[in-house]
Automatic annotation (TrEMBL):
UniProt organism field: Flagellimonas marinaquae
Keyword Transmembrane helix included in the entry's annotation: yes
Name of the protein this chain belongs to: Uncharacterized protein
Key words, A-Z: Membrane, Transmembrane, Transmembrane helix
Record-annotated membrane-spanning stretches: 12-37, 49-68, 80-99, 105-123, 143-162, 174-198, 210-230, 236-254, 275-300, 312-333, 345-368, 374-394
Length: 400
């Protein structure tokens, strides 16, 4: 397949990102000038298009571009890609208007099935040149976590028909899905592709050195899921195991840095790429630190009480670590071109909204006042993100 087709596929992913941002802006607008729509339905549409439209399409496109044998006839991949787009458009036309209903559940179910087929297709058609690469092991683990995360949505149907949406199992199944999507599938896929970049610069790792990292990162992913269950006020052992998972994640990334630091400085990056990479590293450090803090019983209860702290963390991970990581890699592989204007607007909008969301959560905790223009400024910050993505889409559409 020609590279420009992959460029188009990344552009489609960015369009989904823009749609998700537009739905997010609609949610922000509700507090500024309320109008008639079902808020919960829009949340469902926003989250599905963000995770499955933007991130899934971008990651699977890049993984196919980097690791799949180019001699393999691409018709199967094309069918998978466009079939997936059909399910995403179906979700976009149903979730915001119906929430979880027969049609939206059908489209999301079909999406899951196609994601399994993609994983099988990828696994069977890996270019033999990558067989011994450490980056491939990380990417394979990422795909496994993507499959594992789908246990959450499958479980929802059984939970809804038995114990109902008010049970703790309903929330836990959603958190299970989100955790293994964010911390397993998405972060590991980005990490694997970054390792691929370094391996092209002749990064060589001893098997034992890599194994320590690989085992620790996988253990941390599994154990840190317990952070999502601390709100249930279970045994203190849950806090201990969750804290161990968070600490292991810190250890794993420190280990990762020690493995790659000599090779990282050989990378020939543009100024924008350097800024993006440094930003992702800083945000990832903040993310892991927040996870360690959240294992402490007092802060676990605090986070469960003040929803804005949870939303701030999720947006930090998704809009920061994951989305900026994808934009960095897409630009590095020349699948898109980032302009100073689009990147600057995105970063300002992201930082402004993050500060405001976390401020509101902390203000509720410490009993600080929330200034009168809060919702308007938050809406404006979200507008910047949408405009940045619109500019990015337009500029790249003209260049390909």
């Amino acid at each position: 397949m020609k590279a420009n087709k992959y460029n188009r596929h990344i552009q489609i992913a960015i369009l989904y990102f823009g749609v998700a941002a537009l739905l997010g802006l609609l949610l922000r607008a509700y507090a500024v000038f309320p109008f008639g729509f079902n808020y919960k339905y829009i949340v469902h549409g926003h989250s599905h298009i963000a995770l499955l439209g933007w991130v899934y399409v971008a990651l699977t496109t890049m993984l196919h571009y980097l690791f799949v044998d180019r001699k393999v006839f691409s018709k199967k991949y094309q069918c998978l890609f466009w079939g997936t787009q059909g399910t995403l458009i179906g979700m976009l036309l149903t979730f915001p208007f119906q929430g979880y209903a027969v049609s939206s559940i059908l489209f999301s179910t079909l999406f899951l099935v196609l994601s399994y087929i993609y994983t099988y297709h990828f696994w069977k058609n890996i270019d033999p040149v990558h067989t011994r690469r450490k980056s491939l092991r990380i990417v394979k683990a990422a795909l496994i976590y993507m499959i594992i995360s789908s246990i959450g949505p499958w479980a929802l149907g059984a939970i809804m028909s038995t114990v109902g949406p008010e049970s703790v199992w309903y929330r836990l199944s959603i958190y299970f899905y989100l955790h293994f999507q964010y911390n397993g599938w998405m972060v590991l896929a980005i990490l694997g592709m970054f390792m691929y970049v370094l391996e092209r610069l002749d990064l060589e790792l001893h098997q034992k050195t890599f194994s320590i990292f690989f085992i620790s990162i996988n253990l941390s992913i599994v154990l840190s899921f317990l952070l999502s269950a601390l709100w249930t006020n279970a045994s203190i052992w849950l806090n201990i195991l969750a804290g161990l998972g968070a600490m292991l994640q810190w250890f794993a990334f420190v280990r990762f840095w020690s493995m790659i630091k000599s090779t990282v400085f050989k990378l020939k990056l543009t100024g924008k790429q350097k800024l993006l990479l440094k930003t992702v590293v800083i945000l990832l450090t903040i993310k892991i630190t927040l996870q360690i803090i959240s294992a402490l019983p007092y802060f676990a209860q605090l986070i469960a009480t003040y929803l804005d702290l949870t939303i701030g963390y999720l947006h930090l991970t998704f809009l920061g670590v994951i989305s900026l990581g994808i934009l960095f890699l897409s630009d590095y592989f020349k699948l898109i071109r980032l302009s100073n204007l689009s990147m600057g607007m995105y970063l300002v909008g992201f930082m402004l909204t993050e500060l405001l969301i976390f401020y509101k959560g902390l203000a509720a905790w410490i009993k600080w006042p929330v200034f009168k223009e809060y919702t308007t400024v938050l809406f404006s910050g979200s507008t910047l993100i949408l405009f940045a993505l619109a500019i990015l889409s337009y500029q790249n559409y003209r260049k390909v």
